[in-house]
Amino acid sequence: MTFDIIVIGKGLIGCAAAKYLSRKSIKVAIIGTDEPENNEKATIFSSHYDSGRVFRQLGKNSAMTSINHQAHKEYPLLERESEIDFHSKNGCLYVNPYGNDDYLDKIEKRSKLHDVKINQYKSGKEIKRDFPFLSFPEKSNGMFESAPSGHINPRLLIKAQLKVVEKNDGIVINGLVTEVIYKSDYILVKTDNGRTFKCQKVIFATGAFTNCFGLLKEKLDLTLKSETVILAQIHNEDIEHYKSIPSLLYEVNNPEIEGIYSTQPIKYPDGNYYLKIGANLPQDIYFKNGVEEIKEWFVNGNSDANIQVIENYLRSIFLDLKFNKAVSKRCILTRTNSESGNPYISTIKKGRSYIAVGNAWSGGNSDGIGYIVAMLAIDEKFPEGFYEKDFNLIYANDNYK
Ligand SMILES: Cc1cc2nc3c(=O)[nH]c(=O)nc-3n(C[C@H](O)[C@H](O)[C@H](O)COP(=O)(O)OP(=O)(O)OC[C@H]3O[C@@H](n4cnc5c(N)ncnc54)[C@H](O)[C@@H]3O)c2cc1C
To answer: What is the pTM of this model?
Structure first.
């Protein structure tokens, strides 16, 4: 059988794209690897092996806000269609401990433009009035967006997207794609387990591994970075008490830590509830040497060495939080290197191949990115409300290996 479109990469963006294609009665297959049970046996990994991703409505620019909007418009429908709840609407609090910043400066105008209700704060004391369990320096400024902001559960979101794909007769295939061969009137997609699939068009949604297997003729300019998060296990009897904690984006920026984010206590696959908190750290590794270097981080990386610094901030923000021990998790983060830092969404070969690669904030709004690339592949143009110039690809120069 020849598929109309094959999506490569069963991550957050690829699964969303496959769902939108499947709704259009297109013969679609999605090929990717599942979350590994044992990292030592895996070749590739992903950015979504977790149970919480902050979701906010007002992005850093209009294009991001429109993507966020597209995603949250879709979520109630997808939850109904899949019968899987993945979206928690506990709101999102943004705080800058040093005062006003560019994002906060524009927030009132942007919130009116996009019809998003917000509360603004001009001091740590004002924030504390609404969030008594949180503590920030007195100089802090901040902003709170209520529902539908909050968080999504990435594992459940993927499950929901794929359930709809299969309901619409899309095919979900397990495999690592190692080769994409363009013939004159079709495309061959080959996997590491010796299978070959035929299609008319292909969408790359390969995240951090986009440059790794020579699938693209030219490599993209991407920054790949290790990321440590810690999970603080909340006592069962306290879970109810912490239910009103919003998602948090805390713009601290000092030599030991930068850009903290956290989600309220969420139930993880082991049945326990964890408050997750992560940040950029000076000891993060910038990957330049392909899959083996990334695997070394996932298998042997010393993320435990980062627990203390993150835990110190956790304790300073959530003053009275009671938790059992905190454990670390190793992840990989992808950043695009365009001036806007927006995701890359583009045609590679007109009528044949397309790509969508997210940035550090493409979990919560992955559905919107998947929507754009799916429509681009079908219609050969960006859907209404989205503009090519906002998502242009930047190709790597020669110093990327
Ligand atoms: C620790 C951490 C915290 C984050 N927190 C947030 C947050 O709070 N809010 C937010 O919005 N975003 C957050 N993000 C970012 C978000 O997770 C990513 O932007 C999102 O996962 C990107 O989706 P993706 O589909 O591009 O990549 P992924 O979800 O990584 O999916 C790509 C998939 O493609 C597969 N793949 C790659 N190459 C091949 C191949 N050749 N063959 C087959 N399959 C292939 C990969 O294995 C993977 O499964 C966070 C990321 C990290 C690491």
So the answer is: 0.97
